Every structure is written in C-alpha cells, then in structure tokens.
Amino acid sequence: MYAQHQHLTLMEFLEWIPTGGRYELHDGDVVEMAQPSGNHAAVTGYLIQRLTVEIDRLQLPYFISQQVMVSPDGYQRCYLPDITVINSTKLEAEPFWEERSTLTLGASIPLVVEVVSTNWRDDYYTKRGAYEGLSIAEYWIVDHQALGGTQVIGKPKQPTISIYSLVESEYQVSQYRGTDRIVSPTFPELNVTVQQVFESRSRF
Is the full-model pTM beyond 0.85? Predict the structure, then answer.
C-alpha cells in the first residue's frame, strides 16, 4: 500500500518516516509495509534465535536487527529487511548509521533475510537485484507459504528457502526444501533444516 508522500530522496524519506512505522522507499515512492502475520513473525523469530546462537558460538563481531534500514543506492531506495546481520566493525564508515540506523555499504551486511509475504516479486526480483548490486555477501528468501512464482521456486510449488551467495559480483542461488539442511556461507556450521524453520510456525 502506498503512502501519500512520494518521489522523495533518501534523506527526505529518513526525515519524514514516523517513529515505529513500517515503510520503504521504492524508486522515490513511499511504500507502507503490511503488518506481518503471526506465521511470518514466528519464522522470523526462529531464524533470529538460531543465527544469534551461531554469532555467539563463533564470537563474531555481528549483531542482528529488524529495525535497520538498507539503502542500496543512497538516493531513492531504502528497504526494511526482516532480518539484517550487521558487522559492527564496519559501521564507522556508514554515513547514516548513527542518526538514522541506515546502512548503505555492503561490507556492513554479511547477511540479509526476507521472509516472503504477498509482495513476493519485490523479494525475488527487485530486492535481489538491489542487494546484489550493493555486494551483500548473502541473501536469503524464506518462502514459507510457497507464494513465489513457478519461475523462481519451481513446479509444483512448495515452501522453499533460496540462498543467494555473491560469487564474482553476481548472486548464485541454492534452494532448499523439506528435510534439506540449509547451507550458509556466512554460517557454515549452522545445523538447521528447512522443515525445522517452517515447523516453527506451530511452536510459537
């Protein structure tokens, strides 16, 4: 759903955005994000728990946020990922971090996760291209309802986790379903299956 404020620059958007609001900037247009469903929140929460365990176990200089904005061009696009893993050692170089909690450099973001809602095209096409262009090393699309088109998750459609890894400046995708163990370049010892992620919907 589009808000009334459109054709804004990044700075105009960051100055306008209400506290606690769920908005993104798409090519200068403000987009109001729908409130996540309970299942969406459960899947997101489970992934945050498991990734936090890995960060702590490996003693990485990372932390996780659901409030941080990511601007892939620093001008007319700004997204609010469901999960952003942030490298704290890189934040000094971020021009909008201290006052706006906004990241513009791929080096600051080892991993970003989008849990698919009805706007699945944004996750599979728009944001995938933007995150690739920003050189974010790893991008997950967690499609727990199999909402994506057959051209991105295959036929017959089934719940899928797509992991895009940056190889020579381009994303290469691996897809996981059912009892497959997720393979993450950022967290190579992560021992989680797709089934465990999607079963979290009934545990919360």
Answer: yes
